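Ticket reopened. Same input as before:
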Amino acid sequence: MSTVALLGAAELGLVFALVALGVFISFRVLDFPDLTVDGSFPLGAAVAATLILADWNPWVATGIAMLAGAASGIVTATLNVRFKILHLLASILTMIALFSINLRVMGRPNVAILIQDTVLTPFYDLGQTLGLSDAVVRPLFVLAVVLVVVALLARFLTSEFGLAMRATGVNARMARAQGVSTDLHIYVGMALSNALVGLAGALFAQTNGFADVTSGIGTIVIGLAAVIVGETVVRSRVIVWMLVGCVVGSILYRIAIQVALNADFIGLRASDLNLVTALLVAGALILPRIRNPLKARAGAEATSR
Amino acid sequence: MIAAKNLHVTFGRGTPLEKHALRGVDLAIPSGQFVTVIGSNGAGKSTVLGALAGDVIPERGTVAIDGTDVTRWNTPRRAGLVARVFQDPMAGTCATLSIEENMALAAARGRRRGLGAAVGTRQRAGFAERIAELGLGLENRLKDQMGLLSGGQRQAVSLLMATLAGSRILLLDEHTAALDPSTADFVLDLTRRIVVEHGLTTLMVTHSMRHALDYGDRTIMLHEGQVVLDVGGQERAGLDVPDLLAMFSRVRGQQLADDALLIG
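Engineering reply: fixed in the latest deploy. New output:
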């Protein structure tokens, strides 16, 4: 694999690390299987690209993309908490609605922002004076964003409020008995999760120069793949390492996919991406169970208790 | 102080499984009193506790704690006033959080939770000191996951957690029922110690008539959603398990007689 391809994989992995962090909050912290991300990722891209095209400041556009993501998370949370719709179904409803909303936002299925100024423009200029190509500047920039997000999230999840959010996911009854308003924490957590996914979408649009309404398909599986790969590689119960695991998992996943697609002898095409992803996630979920049948059985008993 | 007046609770109203769980329960418990609650399955013991904690909102009647009407308050809102320990050791704690994180959750009960660190150096020292009181050596395991502790240890920590936020009321729902006899005795002695030390107003639901008489200052018996026996002081001191059993079957007999009349 060429350096350019590797840098490209790292860049994409870092953008989707933000998705992985969002999925970590919904799936792992809140124990809320949330498919909204398939809609909030292209929503973030659509909002950012449309605003940038309308000559908005790219940072402001990115911020609004995050707010749009947060709003979609709140819609899903409301359907579940307020109207008692099963979480999975609630998130699918939001996801399907967002497809239409994204088309409305952009006014067409895709928007190009190749010549407009993005949040990356000043860094491209800086890179040029330092003799770094755009292909190097992009992953470095996204890495910086990801590191800031990881630091803030780690701080948040170990705060009193964040601890209450984790308790909400682990044992809601206990959390309520300890005075935690579990409803509030689900709203905030879902908003935060989808805001991060919206941010990922906004950065995806700006690093790739376009937003496309179909770019959200399989976002949840990619995010989940990153979380699972991360948990396998970085085994820790310490919050900050669990978050770092999501980032590492996302990059490793991208590189694995890149290698699989580039290896001519396997005969895969770019269009096989989703199949490979699904197989990878299924494999990652199945492997720990079949590695040691005895251990797996003991584990199953422990969880069923 | 707890004052419950004329509590009525019905589950599954309008369905074939409709159950009138509480039928006019009146309960006045002065501050610092330790009340044990007995009754057969479905008598309404857990429902009474649920109504006091906020899990169950009665369709009639009022609940007041220390003079404040809390009838319409939900569980999280009442948590500042009421601490609980559940029957299932798994239910009262978060298994995948550490011991100190569980304690931090309990210590913030009834306060706004902000963005300050949940477990700071000072809190950790405080937690270590408090958990050392249990004499289980857990002060060196604060970072261990709660799920690694035995059922008895978890119940002991749950009891300790109930005292961290200064609430005046403790509700115990058969909190020793899932433990082996010697561990149950340990947890019960710890309960007595903690209740006395903190002067807590306590309701303890138990299936054991022995425990109901051995612990606390007053015993009430529930049957078919009503208080059918309420003994304290001298009268209670003279009671033994057979007396209680006799009362129990007499109450049930009366109930049968009533039903027989109804049917007849």
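DSSP finds 13 helices and two strands in chain A. Chain A touches chain B at residues 155-156, 158-164, 166-167, 170-171, 173-182, 237, 305 (CB under 8 Å). Please confirm and we'll close it.
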